[in-house]
Every structure is written in C-alpha cells, then in structure tokens.
Amino acid sequence: MLDIVGDSWFRCGLDFRVSSSAVMVVGFVGNEDFWVHFGGGGGLLSFSLFLVLHSGKGNKNAYKALIAAEYSGVQVKLVEDFQMGVSNKTPEFLKMNPIGKVPVLETPEGPLFESNAIARYVARSKADNPLYGASLMDYALIEQWIDFASLEIDANIRLWYGPRMGFAVHLPPAEEAAISALKRGLVALNTYLASNTYLVGHSVTLADIIMTCNLYMGFVRVMTKKFTSEFPHVERYFWTLVNQPNFKKILGDVKQTDSVPAVQSKKPAQTKEAAKPKPKDEPKKEEAPKPKAVEEEEEAPKPKPKNPLDLLPPSKMILDEWKRLYSNTKTNFREVAIKGFWDMYDPEGYSLWFCDYKYNDENTVSFVTLNKVGGFLQRMDLARKYAFGKMLIIGSEPPFKVKGLWLFRGQEIPQFVIDECYDMELYEWKKVDISDEAQKERVSQMIEDQEPFEGEALLDAKCFK
C-alpha cells in the first residue's frame, strides 16, 4: 500500500484501487500510460488515459497535435462544447494561457500553449518516435521545415485571409505584399518537392504534419485551384497527405475553396456620444472660394492610364471562353478543344508565337528545369488577361528542351510583357504563320500535349491560362 501525501500526479502503467487516503496496486494494465491525480486528502480527483486539448473542432492549429497523436499512439482528448470567445475567456482558461489563445494542452506537468510546441510535446511523448526522424540531421531538418511552414507559409496566409474576414484592417498594398511573399515560399517549396515525396526522409514526420495543417488553411480559405495550379508539386504533396488515413481521420474530406472571400466591411459601433442629439450647428463662416484650377484638380483625380491592349478594336475571340473550353474538355480533345480553338481564333485580334529556350544545354536536372519554367509562368501573371500559353519540357534524358506556344492579344508580343518579364529574352520568339499548314498543325499538337512531340517524349507540359 502506498500513502499519498499532498496534491500529487502519478504517471504509471499500473491499475490502482483507491481508498480515502491510500492507493493499493492490484495489477498491470498492459503498456498503457495514464495519469492519476490525488488531492491533499489522498482522494482520487482525476483518472485519465489521455491528454486534454482545449480548442474548437475546426481549428487547424489543434489538428497538428491531433494528427501527431494518431501517428504516435498518444491519446489526446478534445474538450467538449468549446466555444471560441467564451471558453477561452474564463478565469480557468486564462490561468493556463493569460492571452487567451488556443489551443492549450492540459498535461499533468502543467498547461502548454502554442500549437507547434504542443505538437512537439505529443510527438516526443513516445520514445524514439519516427515523427522526429532517425538522426540528429533529421531532427534539425524537421525543425527547419517547421520554421519554414510557420514563417513563410502560415504567416502570409493569415495576412491574406485575416483582413478579408474583418479580423484586421484590409489594406490592398499589404495584401499584395502578403500574396507575393506567400508565392515566394510556395515556389521554394514546389522546387524542393519536385524531387521529394516528404519534407524529411521517406515517411511522414512532424514537419509534414505542421506544413500540411498550415497549407490546409490556405487551400480551404483563399488559395483557389487557379492559384495553386502554379505549384503542382505542392498540390500533389498536399492532396497526398490529407488523404492519408491518420490525416483524414482528423480533417475529414478536404475541399478546396472555389473563390477568395470578399472583403468584410464593418460599420463602427455607434458610441454613446454619437447617439446623443447634436446641437444645432452654428452658422458656418464663409470660406474664401478656392481658385477654380485648384478646385478642379482636387475633385477630378487623374484617370488611371489604360493598357494599350484595352484600346484595340473588339475581337470576336473571347479569351475566357477559350480557356473554359480548354479546362473543361476531358475527352476527344482534338475533336472538341482543338477544333473549338480554330473556330474561335481571330487572326486580326490575336497572334500566335512559338518560343524556344536559348540555353537548353544547361537543362541537365529535371526538377530544376521544371522549376525554371514554373517561375517563368508565375512572372507572366501580369499578362493573364491578355494571353494563353503552353510550355513543353521535352526529352526522356537530359539535357531537356523547353519549347512554348503563346497566344497574345494584338499582332505583337505586348511591350509591357517584354519590359516586365525578364524571362522573355531567354527565348527565341517566332510568329506563327497560320497559312502554313505545318505550323498550324504544330500549334494544335502543342495545345494538345501530343506525345511524342517532334519524335521525343514529354517530361512535362505546363499551361498558362
């Protein structure tokens, strides 16, 4: 028999029988760890086979610990009936985390907050957990990618999503900066994942859990398919992970957002002072009239200059209709999409161009070549309203050839594209002569991703639409 003194927690793999002031060991319970809490009088206050997580059910930061628990065999229980804005404002919760943020993990050793720290604790609760790798270098790389997921991905998604939902003031320049920074992070991640299935090693680690949960917020809130299609290896990675059984048990079926949420406008609450009836206005002193020239300058801001392509005569070809046809055609592509393209094509309003990369002998590494083309397409985003493009990476062995086909509004390559996209000078450009049947057929083959193309296999084909 073991006497209990004071207020004590015990972690054990034993079964206990409790009297008013003592505990008797009556047997083992396999390898299960559980927590037993005794009060000052020795009585049993708590008996738990799990850790307790305080958070709402839809919190992606709570998902980190819950998924880690599934992989680790550690039992973490989500508190019931947690209400954000209510439960996290109680004195009991604020004692665990004074600033009221969620999630909070309640452990026998004390409360723990910050989601990455909680996920680490859960993973480290199991000795030699493969979620932390097999070596010191694995451990360091896992920590590296956790930091990257927090600073480059999660932080910028929050800066994009939060203001649109009214959590902060929406400032278009700040949003543009956040999206630009997010794209920079996704480009780097996409490059790495071109030759890696997971972030560290050949199986899921804690880095993958935290990265996927951070990406989850983006995919379901603000990152549409149009946005993520620029990062195909990130897409492949995300959908592979969220469909793993341990992820799916926590996340359920994940659906990517169809649109970016509109900015939520909030009317300021009327204060008591504002609600009081206003005294009659005193007669306003007459102000000296402004000089006419100054008045007109203030009232009539200068109009934003139009893109020269918007001043061209209307075209019978509606670019968005072609892009929809291309995206929606899943079968009989040659008969439906290719025929539809030539039916729509307006040689007076648009022009077609072939491009060939000047330095193909440098394309000796497949994922570097793919990333090079992906970066080019990302920088072409300024022309999305006026262009459609296909880029083919050709060859089964290095060096790989990069060839492209572009449809531009107007009869020349737009000057603003030449000025702003430095990649343009890395290619040889040749205008397509559609009266030449061979060139016309080559256009069709490139749109269709025909393989073999000009006698060679395709490594990949990328579309700008």
TrEMBL record:
The keyword Plastid does not apply. Residues 135-269 form the GST C-terminal domain. Residues 305-465 form the EF-1-gamma C-terminal domain. Keywords: Elongation factor, Membrane, Protein biosynthesis, Transmembrane, Transmembrane helix. Residues 49-130 form the GST N-terminal domain. This is Glutathione transferase. CDD domains: GST_C_EF1Bgamma_like (cd03181), GST_N_EF1Bgamma (cd03044). EF-1 is composed of four subunits: alpha, beta, delta, and gamma. Residues 273-294 have a biased composition (Basic and acidic residues). Probably plays a role in anchoring the complex to other cellular components. It comes from the Eukaryota. Residues 259-312 are annotated as: Disordered. The keyword Protein biosynthesis applies.
